Amino acid sequence: MDTQHFSGLSRRDALKTIGASAALLGLGLFNSKLVAAGSQGSPDGTPTYPFTLPPLGYAYDALEPRIDARTMEIHHTKHHQAYITNANNALASQPKLQKLTPFEILALINGDTIDKPLRTTLRNNVGGHANHSFFWQILAPNDEDGAPAPTGKLAEDIAATFGSFDTFKKQFADTAMKRFGSGWAWLVISHDTGKLAIISSGNQDSPLLTGDTPVLGLDVWEHAYYLQYQNRRADYVDAFWDVVNWPRAQEFYAIAKV
């Protein structure tokens, strides 16, 4: 996509945003399984409008006892599906935007190409679709001992940036706890420094809105944990470490850093 279309961003920011999108797409964030599930794909196989619900890739009860099956089913089929439905409805009368991938749409949100009321709707709902499609991939069933620690370059850079893996986990959990209300905690490659950073975002805002590339994300909306953990967000955050798909995060990181 030509960067002249990203009217709200500088050329540098637009290129970084496109690069972040390409990194995620290269890992199959919206992959052939989604196309096979019914998405209309762009020439490179990346689904565009109408968006469809991606498969989890594992059973709803696969993350138990850390995240219960009923929460996963409702989260996936009700909450994520609602973002998709709302996004498709908002795009129904927007033929030009229908040709764009979710990431290309998000790259336009901070500009003036899209009318403000529509920008808000797309920010929330295309953002929700992108965030959740990422989130399902960053979770994985693990044995009773939980997820193994990351290895390779990601592990090295986490240690170099935060001092140690344990320090990183503490800082990430602290960020997740301090996100007031609904939102997300993220490990990203920073747009500003090109290095790892921990950030949070409100509602369904995507790190791509500011040019950051997500490596790991945690949904801290209450619908992600309330059936099992009620108001105990800290317990949910602690359980998250046992179901992290670190090999997938390492793939995200490796391709995004190329």
Features:
258 residues; mainly alpha; Helix Hairpins; minor pseudopilin epsh fold; 2 domains; three-stranded antiparallel β-sheet; two-stranded antiparallel sheet; 11 helices; globular
Tally of domains? 2
CATH topology of the largest domain: Helix Hairpins
The rounded Rg comes to 17 Å
- The parts where pLDDT drops under 50 for at least 5 residues are 1-12, 14-23, 25-45
Task: Report, as a whole number of angstroms, the end-to-end distance.
Answer: 20 Å
Q: Helix count, per DSSP?
A: 11
DSSP strand tally: 5
Give the mean pLDDT.
85
Beta-strand proportion: 5-15%
CATH level-four homologous superfamily name of the largest domain: Fe,Mn superoxide dismutase (SOD) domain
CATH architecture level-2 label of the largest domain: Orthogonal Bundle
**Biggest β-sheet strands, sense, barrel:** 3 strands, antiparallel
Per CATH, the class of the largest domain reads Mainly Alpha
Biggest sheet, spatial arrangement of strands = 4-3-5
The class by helix and strand makeup works out as mainly alpha
Explained architecture:
The chain is mostly helical and 258 residues long. Helix content is 48%, strand content 10%. The protein has helices at residues 11-26, 32-36, 69-91, 95-98, 102-108, 116-137, 152-162, 165-178, 226-229, 233-240, 246-256, and strands at 40-41, 47-48, 183-189, 196-202, 213-219. It has a three-stranded antiparallel sheet with strand order 4-3-5, sandwiched between helices. A two-stranded antiparallel sheet has the order 1-2. The chain starts with 10 loop residues before the first helix and ends with a helix. The model is unreliable at 1-12, 14-23 and 25-45 (pLDDT under 50).
